[in-house]
From TrEMBL:
Subunit organization: Heterodimer of a common alpha chain and a unique beta chain which confers biological specificity to thyrotropin, lutropin, follitropin and gonadotropin.
Domain Glycoprotein hormone subunit beta: 21-125
Family under the similarity heading: Belongs to the glycoprotein hormones subunit beta family.
UniProt GO MF annotations: hormone activity
Database matches in InterPro entries: Cystine-knot_cytokine, Glyco_hormone_CN, Gonadotropin_bsu, Gonadotropin_bsu_CS
Location of this chain's protein in the cell: Secreted
Protein name (record): Thyrotropin subunit beta
Pfam (any one): Cys_knot
Amino acid sequence: MSPFFVMSLLFGLTFGQTAALCAPSEYTIHVEKRECAYCLAINTTICAGFCMTRDSNGKKLLLKSALSQNVCTYKEMLYRTALIPGCPHHTVPYYSYPVAVSCKCGKCNTDYSDCVRERGRTNYCTKPQKLCNV
């Protein structure tokens, strides 16, 4: 085999794996309400992974709209609803959450995605935990 063929093959395998890293990924959401006795741990899928993007060196010459980077975001999703156990009758015991069916690389849509990761936000339970597998 020629060195050019081997390098081309390695590049193709590397780029192919890199491009495929935006996909549904397992994630656990912890949900609790002050009025309810339990915290609910919900197993779901979210979009996560790597997307190829280009960052221009000439940022001062381009419009801000041309500088947006691609993120791993939802292509198809559906919503499911879970019942939080141990809630009194006067409290709405339901929680709706997204489930990623398929993902794509694209601009972040703030209508259904959290485009900025907040600092100090935690994802854990402070009450006894119940598990909801979906």
